[in-house]
Write a structure and sequence with these properties.
This protein is of the alpha+beta class. The protein contains 53 helices and 32 strands. The strands form seven sheets. An eight-stranded mixed β-sheet has the order 24-25-26-27-1-30-29-28.
Length: 1488
């Protein structure tokens, strides 16, 4: 008959059982298998089968599986409850398909220590195998079976025997049942098939049954359906179930039948007896419980399990008596997978769940069936597979809750799915890999195994993004639904239940699945109540209420839970997911904002924006249908809730009683307290894995239960006017119950967070390796933990269990109740700590948890948990208790700051890193200000990032802050967070004066401040805050430290090219100008001349900015002098740059001295030997006040001084050297008083005429000046002669003598490529150049035209003198009538040159021109002609010309021309002399 059922427990997967890798062993084919040709019977596998063998103490659990997809492969896994679940299993590949049977037992044969286990197996053809096995963990990929490791034989001893239908076995015995009803026993210990006794047939005819190979001739016996071997009173009994319902029991010690009975006199058509199970009754050792499965073939999935009892008695022979009373269990839905009998219990594993029935119950309670939820339901719920609308509700509620634009909805939804997909129990390695492959994402073993949690997320998101057609929330949701549906289907196929794992010693129950192993746990009392399995559970909880009227309160509680269920059903499973995600996404989404928005959705439905979103995403018609459907559901919910709340109040008569029941209910949600006296460290065992996973399940239920109550109370408060709640009752909810719920939510959230959040993978160089105090645990036994860190199955709870709480160590696998107890103890330890003592608040233990996690580098988790605790601690009530609780709050803030520092070093950049640093600064400052911080932080271990200061804990607050701020400053400095370090250095400075009175400081205030200001200087300088760095220097009271910092300041400014800040007037040189200048000079003396920027230039600018013109001139002149010294060492291609820099320096020095009064316009000459040779000593022109005080010979000796004139001289010579270097002419000078004359020749040869004339005019006077000018013009004239033109020079000249800047600065490593500046001013012809300069400089020396003409004629007597040159001689026009008189370059000089060089024609013409002009004066000018000495002609030269013409005629040279010239000359002279007589007479007449 059908029985009532209630939920009693849940399946808990063993972590790591889903990621096994198998080592394969192959059995060779044999003659036994090949020769066997008997019919196999109905042995085809219809489903995956599996079972478990338990061996040893403490036990080792051997699970075996045969999968329908690989019927010839037997998978074996060995694990222990007190050890880690293995990483490898064993696959034995048989030559043919296996019969659904295997048995593993201890090897009791001789020499069995190497091969301690035996495996029994049989193929469908009847070949049996006995295989010796080592420990499964010993097998590796290269392992193989030796010939003596296995024994095989054919179980078909006669050709006419029926096919094998059932197999059973114990250590050295295998029993085979056949289709003809016969049963064969094989003594495997003999190992020789031909030996007597190896095989025995069990038959009714005892005589014939002992004959080998003789068939029984008795009546026909139905086929053997199942075999079970069990031991009672040291007797091995074989229970044989035949297909017709016949049950026979055989005593294997003598192979005799001791019992035979037909369980069904006339079995119904289509009904088959399939299986039999034999158990033990601990209450009655003589009772043998039996369970028989009878299947109804007419109805698929319908079966009946009948329970029988056999009573065992001994005497002369064994007697068995069947109890006539039987019980039947009707199984209507789902095929039976496996059934196990334990003392007093029957466990039935079906496709739709696990059921436990009591065997010997009275008073009708035997009808109650206890159900255990399988993992399939949990996975379906987490992936929104159970309800059609759950995933849609997730999207719509997300849109309601999120106030941000819809582009953030998709990431939010993806985050929810990702978090649930990677939850323990949902995530399955092989399933995810297969699912990714279904979406064309192929990863090999090494690639997949190398993925961390973040890597898995990225791979999944890449699939989702690839599947999304449009970037809209609807498309993203649809992609997730498709992916999760595929994942769930793969999960169900991959994790098919194969059998039960039962440990009779502890009544531990587990499920063997195709790709995993799991255990079962009992539900908590609150879980029983929440799931509403039975009214008895409500009685259990309500019986603990401190009230006399427990029945009424029980009814009130059930009504409250009904209201909670209605509200939860309306919001669907999406609401807890959204709320949980909001807790994890703070501050992006505050959980405090979620509750009001969810309630708003319950009260008024979706907003107009949500309706518009529906229309835009779904279309008008679909959106309208959904809106109508939702409003109908909302109206029904509102009415139902209104009626339920009114009924609740009517039942309780007042709301105060309802609130009292809710408060009592909430107290049961608070984690219970247990005392823990376990000092040993835990290990990563199967027991710990089960504890962690079970804890996550309990925490989820508790969290969602508290959230549901929170929503109900908030809903009641919002509807208080409608349901009749008073203001006092509303206030009680807000001030008492809601804070209580929030604390419960926080507690279970943290437990769930630890149990489900994967650990972070360690970095090669993280915070713990850099900070001396944060070191990973060096215990050798824990080094393997790092391999697990970062994997999805290794959650934070494992670190807590292994690092701080040993938990329960089970030798056996835990039974359901023990597993629940371990969950309670672990939850208690997380919340209340080891002793279970009442703390001020539960958050105090979070410090200990944080230290454990810090030890293993879990900074993200520590930061999140401590941030959550910190957020709660800001509430007034908790804050006060924390502040007065021995500085625990300061410890919390300190650890939170350490985590923020660590996170900032883990690949963050930009604003994210700055935010983490700011959080760390804020936490450290807050930690230092908490009362009792000194005592609390001094007691921290090394992993907390603390360096013990070495002073008593009894110190003044100021002294404590001083030391703490210095510690924080050092921590930030170690991690290159200089701005934060600077803040703590400044904060420490504020505490120095006040801390002096405490007596803790061993240093003076000046020394401490000097050190701190030096740190401030260093940090600001590193940050390029030069103004702040200088202010730190001038604030430093320690003079020595100040000097060091100042020198460092200047050096760094030089290195960074920022030294100009010293000269722009921004820095306040308060009493430091001399030191700054001295440091600059110190730097300049030790710097290379090519340094950029040059220190001497900065000194020049520094002095100019302070209006110290003479010092500025001195510094820039020193720069020029250094260039002169080092310039000779440079390559020629760079020499021009150096010379240009020297010119710039000299020009700047001249300009600076010109700003000084002429009496003081001088500077000291450099003491360098080269410079001293340039300037001879003379008496110092210096006043007494300006003399530098000093003693000894150095101050007494005379020094050289340089004035403006000498600077100008050097400037000119340097300019000449520079221009010559540009023309690739090497020349330099040693002294400036009298430069060598060869420089003029070099300049002229290089066409540098301007520079040549400048040098001449500067350094030569009088006749020496004329001589040098004549030399230059003679050289210029020679270039005009075609036959004598020099090949050097390019006709260029300098524009001016103004100071010009070089191109940028001196290039140290690059050669120059500068062209010669243009030197021509009026064309490119030498004649034009000569004309230009002759016109310009003849005023300095009037004879220059004569020199030019003389040079030209000397070079080429026949040359045609240019007209402009002739005109220079004719300074006085001939028509003026003055004759040939004039300056040194007069017509007479030209006349003489013509005569000297035989140019008689030109000479005659020139003379005739002036004579005729004299004779043809205008009447108005005649009076001037008649004056005394008014006219002069070179008569001696005329006479010389006459003689030369005569000589030419005499010699016969050019006779005709000479005659003609002579006649012209004679005529002109006669007329001229006649005119002179006339004029003389006129003069005499006028006188008389």
């Amino acid at each position: 008959m059908e029985s009532r059922s209630c939920l009693a427990g849940m399946e808990v997967p063993i972590t790591g059982s889903d990621s096994l890798k198998f080592v394969q062993l192959t059995l060779p084919s044999s003659s036994s298998s090949s020769s066997s040709s008997s019919p196999t019977g109905s042995t085809h596998l219809t489903r995956d089968v599996g079972s478990c063998s338990i061996i040893g103490n403490p036990p080792s659990y051997f699970t075996w599986k045969i999968c329908r997809s690989q019927p010839n492969v037997l998978e074996i896994i060995e694990f222990c409850g007190h050890k880690e679940f293995p990483k490898t299993g064993l696959q034995i590949i048989f030559p043919e398909a296996l019969f659904p049977f295997a048995m593993i037992c201890k090897n009791e044969m001789a020499f069995s220590s190497v091969k301690p286990y035996l495996l029994h197996a049989m193929t469908v053809s009847g070949v049996a195998y006995l295989i010796k096995l080592e420990n499964i963990s010993n097998y590796v990929s290269s392992s193989h079976l030796q010939s003596d490791d296995f024994f095989e034989f054919n179980a078909l001893t006669h050709p006419h025997q029926g096919a094998t239908t059932a197999v059973a076995g114990i250590a050295e015995l295998m029993v085979v049942g056949r289709s003809d009803g016969s049963v064969g026993c094989f003594q495997l210990g003999i190992l020789d098939q031909r030996a007597p006794g190896f095989v025995q047939e069990l038959r009714d005819d005892a005589g014939l049954g002992r004959l080998w190979g003789v068939l029984s001739r008795g009546r026909s016996i139905a086929a053997v359906q199942d075999l079970v071997i069990s031991e009672f009173h040291q007797k091995k009994l074989l229970f044989v179930l035949h297909s017709d319902g016949s049950l026979r029991v055989w005593d294997l010690s003598n192979c005799s039948r001791i019992f035979s009975h037909s369980l069904s006199g006339s079995p119904s058509a289509g009904s088959t007896f399939a299986k039999i199970w034999v158990g033990n009754d601990h209450n009655n050792a003589d009772a043998i419980p039996l369970a028989v499965l009878q299947k109804d073939d007419s109805e698929v999935g319908t079966a009946v399990i009948s329970l029988y009892s056999l009573y065992f008695s001994t005497g002369d022979r064994i007697n068995l008596l069947l109890d006539p009373s039987t019980k039947s269990i009707l199984l209507e839905e789902g095929d039976v997978i496996d059934v196990k009998l334990t003392p007093n219990k029957l466990w039935i594993l079906r496709e739709n769940g696990l059921v436990m029935k009591g065997l010997f119950c009275q008073d009708g309670k035997e009808e109650l069936a206890y159900c255990y939820t399988l993992q399939d339901a949990f996975v379906a719920e987490q992936l929104f597979q159970g309800s059609e609308n759950s995933s849609d509700d997730l999207l719509w509620l997300s849109h309601t809750v999120l106030s941000s634009p819809k582009d953030q909805i998709s990431p939010f939804v993806s985050s929810v799915f990702l978090r649930r997909l990677l939850l323990p129990g949902v995530y399955h390695r092989n399933v995810l890999r297969v699912t990714l492959r279904d979406f064309s994402k192929h990863l090999n073993d090494s690639e997949f195994d190398s993925l961390t949690v973040d890597g898995l997320k990225n791979e999944i998101l890449s699939v989702i993004q690839h599947e999304v057609g449009a970037d809209s929330p609807i498309s993203v949701l649809q992609s997730w639904k498709t992916f999760c549906t595929c994942y769930f289907n793969n999960w169900c196929r991959t994790n098919v239940a194969c059998g039960l794992l039962i440990d009779s010693a502890t009544e531990a129950v587990g499920v063997i699945r195709k790709s995993s192993v799991s255990m079962c746990r009992s539900l908590e009392d609150i879980e029983l109540l929440v799931f509403g399995s039975s009214e008895e559970h409500g009685n259990i909880v309500c019986s603990r209420f401190d009230s006399s009227d427990s029945d009424l309160e029980r009814e009130i509680l059930l009504d409250i839970l009904q209201c909670v269920g209605n509200l939860s059903q309306q919001l669907s499973k999406a609401a807890p997911a959204i709320f949980y995600e909001s807790l994890l996404r703070t501050p992006n989404l505050s959980s405090e904002e979620v509750i009001p928005r969810l309630l708003k959705n319950l009260e008024s439905g979706y907003s107009s924006s949500m309706e518009a979103f529906h229309v835009s995403e779904l279309g008008t018609d679909v959106a309208l249908d959904k809106e109508i459907s939702y409003h109908k559901r909302l109206r029904k919910f509102s009415v139902d809730m209104f009626l339920s709340l009114h009924n609740l109040r009517n039942r309780a008569t007042r709301w105060g009683r309802v609130l009292h029941v809710i408060e009592s209910y909430l107290k049961f949600l608070v984690p219970r307290k247990y005392e823990h006296n376990l000092d040993s460290d835990g290990l990563f065992t199967v027991s710990t894995a089960l504890t962690v996973h079970a804890t996550s399940q309990v925490a989820k239920v508790m969290f969602e239960s508290a959230l549901d109550v929170h929503l109900l109370l908030s809903y009641m408060v919002n509807s208080s006017s409608q349901i009749g709640m008073s203001e006092d009752e509303v206030s009680r909810v807000k001030l008492e119950l809601v804070p209580m719920i929030q604390e419960v939510l926080a507690e279970w959230h943290i437990i769930h967070f630890f149990s489900t959040t994967p650990s972070d993978s360690p970095l090669l160089e993280d915070f713990s390796s850099q900070l001396s105090s944060l070191q990973l645990d060096g215990n050798v036994d824990r080094r393997s933990w790092n391999e697990k860190l970062g994997k999805s199955e290794f959650t934070l709870a494992f670190i807590l269990l292994l690092g701080g709480h040993s938990g329960l160590s089970f030798g056996h696998l835990p039974d359901p109740n023990s597993l629940s107890n371990s969950v309670q103890e672990f939850s208690s330890w997380i919340i209340w700590g080891r002793t279970g003592a009442e703390p001020s608040v539960f958050f105090s233990h979070s410090i200990g948890l944080a230290l454990i996690l810090l030890r293993h580098g879990q900074y993200d988790a520590v930061e999140y948990v401590l941030s959550l605790v910190d957020a709660y601690s800001r509430e007034e009530k908790i804050c006060q208790s924390l502040q007065s609780d021995g500085g625990e709050w300061s410890t919390l803030l300190h650890l939170l700051g350490c985590c923020s520092i660590a996170q900032s070093q883990r690949g963050l950049h930009g604003t994210m890193k700055e935010r983490k640093i700011s959080e760390a600064v804020r936490c450290f400052f807050r930690a230092a200000c908490v009362e009792g911080a000194a005592k609390a932080l001094q007691s921290l271990p090394n992993e907390a990032g603390w360096v013990h200061l070495g002073f008593s804990q009894q110190v003044s607050p100021a002294a404590w802050k001083l030391h703490y701020y210095q510690w924080a400053m050092q921590i930030f400095e170690q991690h290159n967070m200089r701005e934060a370090a600077c803040q703590f250095a400044l904060a420490a400075l504020e505490q120095v004066d006040e801390a002096l009175g405490s007596g803790v400081l061993d240093e003076s205030a000046t020394a401490v401040k000097g050190r701190l200001w030096a740190n401030v200087f260093k940090f600001t300088l590193d940050l390029n805050y030069y103004y702040d760095a200088y202010c730190a220097i001038i604030s430093n009271p320690d003079e020595e430290s100040k000097t060091i910092c100042l020198r460092r300041f200047i050096i760094v400014l030089y290195e960074r090219g920022a030294a100009k800040i010293l000269c722009d007037g921004q820095l306040p040189f308060i009493g430091l100008s001399e030191k700054v200048e001295r440091e600059l000079a110190w730097k300049a003396e030790r710097s290379d001349v090519s340094a950029k920027p040059n220190p001497f230039k900065l000194l020049y600018a520094f002095a100019m900015q302070r209006h110290n013109w003479r010092r500025a001139a001195s510094y820039i002149y020193l720069y020029s002098a250094q260039l002169r010294i080092h310039g000779a060492m440079r390559d020629p291609q760079r020499r021009s740059f150096i010379l240009q820099e020297r010119l710039n320096g000299l020009s700047a020095a001249i300009n600076a001295l010109q700003l000084v009064h002429p009496a003081y316009a001088w500077i000291d000459a450099p003491l360098d030997e080269t410079c001293s040779n340039m300037y001879p000593s003379k008496k110092a022109r210096i006043t007494i006040e300006e003399q530098s005080p000093g003693n000894g010979a150095e101050s007494q000796r005379q020094r050289s001084y340089v004035d403006v004139e000498k600077l100008e001289n050097e400037f000119i010579l340097t300019s000449a050297e520079h221009l010559l270097s540009l023309a690739n002419v090497a020349w330099t000078f040693a002294r400036i008083e009298a430069p060598p004359t060869d420089v003029i020749d070099l300049l002229a040869e290089s066409n540098l005429y301007d520079m040549a004339f400048t040098v001449i005019l500067k350094f030569w006077k009088g006749s020496a000046l004329n001589r040098e000018l004549e030399r230059v013009f003679a050289a210029m004239s020679m270039k005009c002669c075609p036959k004598k033109a020099p090949s050097v020079g390019n006709g260029q000249r300098m524009h001016s003598l103004l100071l010009t800047s070089s191109q940028d600065e001196i290039v140290v490593h690059e050669s120059s490529n500068v062209g010669l500046p243009g030197q021509e001013s009026a064309g490119s012809s030498h004649w034009e150049t000569l004309e230009l300069y002759l016109e310009k400089y003849k005023k300095f020396h009037a004879k220059l035209p004569v020199v030019v003409a003389d040079t030209l004629l000397a070079a080429d007597p026949q040359i045609e003198l240019p007209l402009w040159l002739v005109q220079m001689f004719k300074g006085v026009p001939a028509k003026s009538g003055g004759g040939m008189a004039g300056s040194e370059s007069n017509p007479a000089s030209l006349f003489r040159l013509y005569i000297d060089y035989g140019r008689y024609t030109e000479a005659t013409n020139l003379l005739l021109e002036y004579i005729e002009s004299f004779a043809s004066l205008r009447p108005a000018d005649i009076i001037r002609r008649k004056k005394p000495f008014a006219v002069w002609f070179p008569y001696s030269l005329i006479e010389r010309l006459w003689c030369q013409l005569q000589q030419s005629i005499k010699l016969g040279h050019m006779v005709d021309q000479s005659e003609k010239l002579k006649k012209l000359l004679q005529g002109a002279l006669m007329n001229h002399l006649h005119q002179l007589n006339v004029d003389s007479d006129d003069v005499m007449s006028s006188v008389s």
